[in-house]
Amino acid sequence: MLIDSGTPISILPEDFFHRLLEQVRKKVALEPMPFDPSLGYQLCYRTPTNLKGPTLVAHFEGADVLLTPTQIFIPVQYGIFCFAFTSSFSNEYGTYGSYVQSNYLIGFDLEKQVVSFKATDCTNLQDAPRVLPNFLSSPMYLFLLLVIFTKLIFLSLHCMN
């Protein structure tokens, strides 16, 4: 699975996507919208606020990441929420997109080859660790930043609403 903050929706291997799509349809009490050319072929629901369920769990080696409806369904128009996943049209690999990364701090430690996930309320970031200091013009902080990049340890904050 490729983790990509530049790809909004998650792309899943075709067989897995269709099985997941069917399970989501069964779990959502609302009637899916009929095909709408402006939305394309995707699972969408008409509701004034985001759906109440279901939740999903993304299973990674060593981590289970809970995905809530705000990460699973995205507002595409006022009152319309669509499933934030699509098919890769192959069964090779997938992409973990930016919508499912929201409200998580995602750490990348390339030296140890570890990716970590920490649930975070992105509307309240004063408690989150700071990646960069407020005053970047200080030579000491620029040197520290250079050392961090040299050691290839990256911490990426993916908080989007």
TrEMBL record:
<keyword id="KW-0645">Protease</keyword>
<dbReference type="Pfam" id="PF14541">
    <property type="entry name" value="TAXi_C"/>
</dbReference>
<dbReference type="GO" id="GO:0006508">
    <property type="term" value="P:proteolysis"/>
</dbReference>
<keyword id="KW-0378">Hydrolase</keyword>
<dbReference type="InterPro" id="IPR032799">
    <property type="entry name" value="TAXi_C"/>
</dbReference>
<dbReference type="InterPro" id="IPR033121">
    <property type="entry name" value="PEPTIDASE_A1"/>
</dbReference>
<feature type="transmembrane region" description="Helical">
    <location>
        <begin position="140"/>
        <end position="160"/>
    </location>
</feature>
<dbReference type="InterPro" id="IPR021109">
    <property type="entry name" value="Peptidase_aspartic_dom_sf"/>
</dbReference>
<dbReference type="GO" id="GO:0008233">
    <property type="term" value="F:peptidase activity"/>
</dbReference>
<dbReference type="InterPro" id="IPR051708">
    <property type="entry name" value="Plant_Aspart_Prot_A1"/>
</dbReference>
<keyword id="KW-0472">Membrane</keyword>
<feature type="domain" description="Peptidase A1">
    <location>
        <begin position="1"/>
        <end position="118"/>
    </location>
</feature>
<keyword id="KW-1133">Transmembrane helix</keyword>
<protein>
    <submittedName>
        <fullName>Aspartyl protease family protein, putative</fullName>
        <ecNumber>3.4.23.12</ecNumber>
    </submittedName>
</protein>
<keyword id="KW-0812">Transmembrane</keyword>
